[in-house]
Specification:
single chain; alpha+beta; Phosphorylase Kinase, domain 1; Aminoglycoside 3'-phosphotransferase, Chain: A, domain 2; 2 domains; 5-stranded antiparallel β-sheet; two-stranded antiparallel ribbon; 11 helices; about 15% strand; globular
C-alpha cells in the first residue's frame, strides 16, 4: 500500500491539479480517511481528503455538486486538470476541496440551533430529484428495521466484551443493559403499528437524501454566523427523521442535559421549512426512545478507546435518556 505522506500529496497536487504546495498539515485522521490542509505558493488554501476505499467517492462528488447547484452552502469538490474529480491511489482515492474557514456552531445558542435545524430541512428539500437524475446513491440507511437490527448486533457484541472484562465501564454498561434492552423491545413492539411501511414505500418512489451524520462536527460556522455543511461520506436515501433525531441527541449529550425546550426548538425550526406528517413525528419520537447513543458509546469504548472519559459519557447519556423518557411520557418503566 502506498504511504500517504507529504511527498505523495505534493506530487498528486502538482500532477493532477497543477498546484504547487508550499506547506501542508494533517488535520484529521480516522481509520478509513484523512484530511490534509494544504497551502500553495499563491497562498490559496485547500482541503485534500483521502478515502481508504474509493467506492463512496462518486457519491460524495455527486451529492456535493447537486446540493450546491440547489443553493445549499456546501464545500464543493474541485476538478482536476482533465475535468474529473477523483484521484485514485491503490484502492483508495483523494478529493480536493477549497478550504473553508470556520468553527463548530455554538449549539448552546437557541438561535444557532434553529439555523442548524432549518439548514437541515433545506438540505432535505433540495435533495429531492437527486436519485431520479441518475446520480450514484445508496439506500443502506433507509429501512429502520435494518438500522435497529444492526444496532442490536452491536449491543450484543458489547455485552460479550463487557462480560469478559472486569473494568468499571463494563460494570456500568452491564448494570444499565436491562433498561437499554427494554427500550429496544419497547420500540420494536410499536414499530410495526406505525406508518413506517407506507413512508418507506413513498421514499422509494420519491427519494430524499439524509446526511447521516448531521451534527455540529459536520457544520462549519463563519465569523458572520453563516453555516456550511461538510462531509457527505454517510449520505444516503433515508427518511428525514433520523437526521433530526441524531441532531437532537448530539446537542443534548454535548450540553449534558435533556431539554424539552431544545427538542421543541429543533422540531419547530425544521418544520418551518419541511413540515412533518403525524406519522413522521411519531417515528421521530420512537427513534428518540431507541438507545442509539448508549450503544454507540459502548461500541466505541470496546473498539479500543478505553478512555476513562467514556465512563462519564455513558453515565451522562443514561441520565439524559431517563430525563427524556420522563419528559416525553414514553418508553418502558425505569
Amino acid at each position: 500500500m502506498t504511504a500517504i505522506d507529504e511527498k505523495l500529496i505534493s506530487g498528486l497536487l502538482q500532477h493532477y491539479y497543477g498546484i504547487t504546495s508550499e506547506s501542508m498539515v494533517l488535520v484529521r485522521r480516522k481509520p478509513d480517511r484523512q484530511l490534509w490542509k494544504v497551502i500553495d505558493t499563491g497562498k490559496n488554501v485547500y482541503a485534500f481528503k483521502y478515502l481508504e476505499k474509493s467506492a463512496r467517492a462518486p457519491l460524495i462528488v455527486a451529492v456535493n455538486n447537486y446540493i450546491h447547484g440547489k443553493g445549499i452552502p456546501v464545500t464543493i469538490v474541485l476538478p482536476k486538470l482533465d475535468g474529473t474529480s477523483i484521484v485514485a491511489v491503490d484502492d483508495g482515492c483523494f478529493l480536493l476541496f477549497q478550504w473553508q474557514e470556520g468553527s463548530q456552531p455554538d449549539y448552546a445558542d437557541n438561535d444557532m440551533i434553529k439555523k442548524m435545524a432549518m439548514l437541515l430541512a433545506e438540505f432535505h428539500v433540495a435533495s429531492q430529484g437527486y436519485a431520479g437524475s441518475g446520480n450514484p446513491i445508496t439506500d443502506s440507511r433507509l429501512d429502520w428495521n435494518q438500522i435497529y437490527q444492526r444496532k442490536i448486533k452491536k449491543m450484543k457484541k458489547c455485552q460479550k466484551n463487557a462480560n469478559k472484562s472486569g473494568d468499571l465501564f463494563s460494570a456500568s454498561f452491564l448494570s444499565h443493559l436491562p433498561w437499554i434492552q427494554s427500550r429496544i423491545n419497547w420500540v420494536l413492539d410499536r414499530l410495526p403499528h406505525t406508518g413506517l411501511s407506507a413512508l418507506l414505500d413513498a421514499a422509494r418512489q420519491d427519494p430524499h437524501l439524509a446526511h447521516g451524520d448531521y451534527s455540529p462536527l459536520n457544520i462549519l460556522c463563519s465569523k458572520n454566523k453563516e453555516l456550511t455543511i461538510i462531509d457527505f461520506d454517510t449520505t444516503s436515501i433515508a427518511l428525514p427523521m433520523r437526521d433530526i433525531s441524531h441532531l437532537i441527541t448530539w446537542i443534548n449529550h454535548e450540553l449534558g442535559a435533556w431539554s424539552s425546550e431544545r427538542f421543541k426548538c429543533v422540531v419547530d425550526a425544521y418544520q418551518q421549512i419541511h413540515p412533518l406528517s403525524s406519522e413522521e413525528y411519531e417515528l421521530l419520537l420512537l427513534d428518540q426512545i431507541f438507545p442509539h447513543k448508549a450503544i454507540r458509546l459502548s461500541e466505541k469504548y470496546f473498539k479500543g478507546s478505553g478512555s476513562s472519559k467514556m465512563l462519564k459519557g455513558l453515565e451522562r447519556c443514561i441520565e439524559i435518556d431517563k430525563a427524556k423518557l420522563t419528559d416525553l411520557g414514553m418508553g418502558p418503566k425505569q
